[in-house]
Design goal:
The structure holds 2 protein chains of 2 kinds. By secondary structure, chain A is an all-alpha fold. Helices cover 74% and strands 2% of the residues of chain A. Chain A contains 16 helices and 2 strands. Chain A has a two-stranded antiparallel sheet with strand order 1-2. In chain A, a hairpin with a 2-residue loop joins strand 1 and strand 2. In chain A, 30% of the residues are buried. Chain B is an alpha+beta fold. In chain B, helix 2 packs parallel to helix 4. The chains are: A mainly alpha, B alpha+beta. The interface between A and B is medium-sized, with 19 and 25 residues.
């Protein structure tokens, strides 16, 4: 085996500055190696957040920013009925989308993991195929499916299930939920697949041996032991969907508008950065709290399944 | 062994693709019997055990438990419980919850359930560990929890898939004794899969020795060791010296042979049928050969040369070359008289117990 690097004699190392000496240790080398991407990532992560948080405590008068500290933006963001409604709707949509996506993705992940056999890789590949097309293209194809003269309405008409096209398919919250659930499916399937792959199959055999049929085995073994994957999938879907403003704009109609659309307007047409920032920060905090609550709830549920 | 078999294995075959994992197996295991399936890895012993437990179905043939055919009956509906090789302790549950896992479904009531868990914990001497999580246990503790979790279900048959192979030597020997005690105490049928011949010999009432999907011999440990049916069985269970015979004849219950360098010997077939005397082979266990020390006399003296010496602490194995014998012979002696000091290359005189020669199918 080769040594990782020539080590310096102690007497020579002693003469060096503490920083230089630190950078020559294994830990130091590790930090040195990851620092370019780390610095880059931190700047891109922390920079915008600082800008947003700072803006949220300022005020704007047409084009000039007044940098005196104020809580007025938060008052508006949290008490004005329009923002409160939009925020509640966004939370409702994102939580619904997250659960719908995970409930639909779980059987897919389960099938690939338990019955994929030699073709697991191929299955995962097939699952990602729709994501080769653009984000907008996928949303627009849902417009084609759900539209007034869309595929779904035409099919139902043809089959005689309905007499005239349904106008309730698109331009509402349901359409947003359906479209987002599809958009994020692969991102939910992957963490679920990984956690199902890690599940020791002999535990299921032991549960069967101790008298459990397939349903009980799932509830008492598979579900609690894949809970980390479920939580990860929920978060991966829920958190970004709160901030989505393209899908509501394209398929949501006026009833599907979400908080991110309001934020976008404040940063864009309305040109009120401080209010937009306060809305963004409020959303961020509330979403984090909701996410935390869901994690705690599911962790509690896991303890109950025995 | 009582009259009615607890497990009846009838003409069981298992084929995986082109591979015949089990080939027309027949065996019956009695109620309260400690039965071992012994064989090298890949011989099909675990497959057979999994079939008794319901985790695999035979390709043809059937398995009966308590007189009832188990065809198509899933593991959760069989009167068997299994201790898995990996123990399969549920990591998200603590020790008590692991043990209570199967009881939950029986709806015994809280008090009865807790009582049974307490008893099971005491039975495997883990009373203190009830609240410990499943993923915080040592190997020996996991093994005990797996055992308690199965026994608490009060099965008719307990299946053990190499339950001791992951433990270190001292713990393994201790657990062998404990398992044997436990089985006698509760009196249910144990079926143990092992590749360790000493484990099988020390624990079992009967052993089935398996090679390549077939059962070579089913017998008591003593019979299996002292009177192996085939060369393969003899070889798998401890050392065996196979001897070259210039003449070999089977006559009723007796066989006679002339062994070059050793002399003319006779022996008993001991109930065995030698179908093909031409391919039969004579053998003797190394411990049935003794060194003739200076000043001692013996009826039959065989001379040879020490080729190699292996020291095992309390005893020494000497490898001896005998003129006329194609294979070297090993002699195991305790070290009380200085067998460990005999130099390699020296001439040596050995003798044998007259009744120690065994005839086997080659």
């Amino acid at each position: 085996m080769e040594t990782s690097a020539p080590t310096m004699p102690a007497e020579r190392a002693a003469g060096l500055a503490p920083v230089t000496r630190f950078l020559r240790t294994e830990t130091g080398k590790g930090w040195l190696t990851i620092s370019p991407p780390l610095i880059y990532a931190m700047l891109l992560l922390i920079g915008p957040i600082i800008v947003i948080v700072a803006n949220s405590f300022w005020s704007q008068d047409y084009l000039t920013i007044d940098r005196t500290f104020t809580l007025e933006n938060y008052r508006a963001a949290l008490t004005e009925p329009i923002y409160r409604d939009l925020l509640m709707r966004s939370l409702f949509v994102s939580v619904t989308v997250a659960f719908v996506t995970v409930i639909l993705a779980y059987p897919v992940a389960w099938f690939v993991s338990f019955h994929g056999g030699r073709y697991k890789g191929l299955w995962l590949f097939i699952i990602t195929v729709p994501f080769w097309s653009g984000y907008l293209l996928r949303i627009l194809s849902w417009k084609v499916i759900l539209g007034y003269k869309g595929v779904l309405n035409e099919t139902l008409l043809y089959l005689g299930v309905i007499a005239e096209p349904l106008s309730s398919l698109i331009y509402n919250v349901n359409a947003v939920v359906i479209t987002l659930a599809h958009s994020w499916a692969a991102f939910a399937i992957l963490p679920l697949f990984v956690s199902l792959e890690k599940l020791d199959r002999s535990l299921l055999e032991a549960a069967a041996d101790l008298g459990d049929g397939p349903v009980r085995r799932f509830l008492r073994i598979t579900l609690p032991l894949t809970m980390p994957g479920i939580i990860a999938a929920l978060m991966i879907v829920m958190i970004p969907t709160v901030g989505d403003y393209v899908t509501p704009k394209l398929v949501g109609g006026k009833d599907g508008v979400m908080i991110a659309n309001a934020i976008q307007v404040q940063f864009g047409k309305a040109s009120n950065w401080p209010l937009g920032a306060a809305l963004a920060v409020s959303t961020m905090v509330i979403v984090s709290m909701v996410a935390g609550a869901i994690v705690l709830l599911l962790a509690g549920l896991k303890r109950l399944l025995k | 062994m009582s009259a009615a078999p607890m497990i009846d294995i009838r003409n069981v075959d298992k084929v995986f693709g082109n591979f015949r994992a089990l080939d027309t197996l027949n065996a019956s295991i009695g109620e309260g019997e400690f039965f071992s399936l012994l064989g090298p890895s890949g011989c099909g012993k675990t497959t057979l055990l999994r079939m008794i437990g319901g985790f695999d179905e035979p390709t043809s043939g059937e398995i009966l438990i308590g007189g009832k055919s188990m065809a198509g009956i899933p593991p959760n509906l069989r009167p068997t419980n299994m201790v898995f090789q990996s123990y399969a302790i549920f990591p998200h549950l603590n020790v008590s919850e692991n043990i209570a896992y199967g009881l939950k479904r029986l709806r015994l009531g809280r008090e009865e359930e807790e009582k049974r868990v307490r008893e099971a914990l005491a039975q495997v001497e883990l009373s203190e560990l009830g609240p410990r999580m499943g993923n915080q246990l040592s190997g020996g503790q996991r093994q005990r929890v797996a055992l308690a979790r199965s026994l608490v279900m009060r099965p008719k048959v307990l299946l053990l898939d190499e339950p001791l192979s992951a433990l270190d030597k001292n713990l393994r020997e201790q657990m062998q004794v404990e398992l044997r005690h436990l089985q006698r105490q509760i009196g249910i049928t144990f079926v143990l899969v092992t590749h360790d011949q000493y484990e099988a010999l020390s624990m079992s009432d009967r052993i089935a020795v398996m090679f390549a999907g077939q059962i070579a011999q089913i017998d008591s440990p003593k019979e299996i060791y002292q009177n192996p049916a085939t060369r393969q069985v003899a070889d798998f269970l401890g050392g065996m010296n196979f001897l070259t015979a210039s003449e070999l004849a089977v006559d009723g219950k007796v066989f006679r042979a002339v062994l070059p360098g050793i002399g003319a010997i006779t022996g008993h077939l001991a109930g065995k049928a030698i179908s093909d005397p031409a391919s039969a082979i004579i053998g003797i266990r190394p411990e049935r050969l003794r060194i003739v020390w200076e000043g001692e006399t013996a009826d039959h003296i065989v001379t040879g040369k020490v080729v190699d010496r292996n020291y095992y602490g309390e005893m020494t194995s000497l490898v001896v070359g005998i003129e006329g014998q194609s294979e070297r012979v090993s002699v195991v002696e305790t070290n009380d008289f200085g067998a460990d000091d005999i130099p390699v290359g020296s001439d040596i005189a050995i003798t044998y117990d007259r009744d120690a020669f065994i005839i086997m199918q080659g």
